């Protein structure tokens, strides 16, 4: 089974979203970008670095509870070496999310001090949250803003369909409608995005995705295969899939392996963390 992951994906509405972001970035002090901690490079939109030039940066490695802690720490060091702030979190955990407000203020300290020297006092920091589909942006915004967050209507940008949310007296959040998607040339990026569900399962063949995932786990996380499926790692990836299919009852008429169902089981196990804490990329892979 050979993977066919030849994808190019940049729909028209993404171009519109990019234009909106170019307008929005002029209004803000800091760009807060969410990436998936399991694939920090593949889930990071390469357009953002250009759009956010001259702005403070904070990278949030979301879903860190599903990722390899050592590799997450390596990614944080990597981002910090670029002069950015970085934090690992689970956007569903209120305590994780609440700590971000302090990081935003810390990363914008120079801006606040410069404003104070100019006599501009009590102006809240303006932050824009960005992130590709399925990295948890909506969950983060909902957790971060909370039910008591007040929308502010006297800030530039509101009339353009953007929404300002006052988090506290020190931070305002710009929630922009629309989404941005990375245009990727490296097909491994598309495959990894499909592993976490950022590309719809109908776009790529699930059997190919699961095959590649098993191959990766065999090389990088053999203990995950052993503990979840009882596989020792000596089998070829296709043989592993067949064993998993039989073990899970993914069979068709004549006791034939149903590869689609087997693939769904494997991908679902990965996405929900049943295979353990796994990160598919390390700094330098990107």
Helical content class: 40-55%
Number-wise, the strands total 9
- Biggest sheet architecture: 7 strands, mixed
Total helical segments: 11
CATH architecture of the largest domain: 3-Layer(aba) Sandwich
Mean pLDDT, nearest integer? Answer: 84
Low-confidence stretches: 1-6, 150-160
Q: How many domains would you count in the coordinates?
A: 2
Instruction: Please state the overall shape, judged from the principal axes of the Cα atoms.
Output: elongated
H/E element order: HEHEHEHHEHEEEHHHHEEH
In whole angstroms, how far apart are the ends? 26 Å
What does this structure look like?
- The chain is an alpha/beta fold and 286 residues long.
- The protein folds into 2 domains: 12-175, P-loop containing nucleotide triphosphate hydrolases (Rossmann fold), CATH 3.40.50; 205-271, Conserved Hypothetical Protein Ylqf, Chain: A, domain 2.
- 42% of the residues lie in helices and 14% in strands.
- The strands form 2 sheets. The protein has a 7-stranded mixed β-sheet, sandwiched between helices. The protein has a two-stranded antiparallel sheet with strand order 8-9.
- β8 and β9 (256-257) form a beta hairpin.
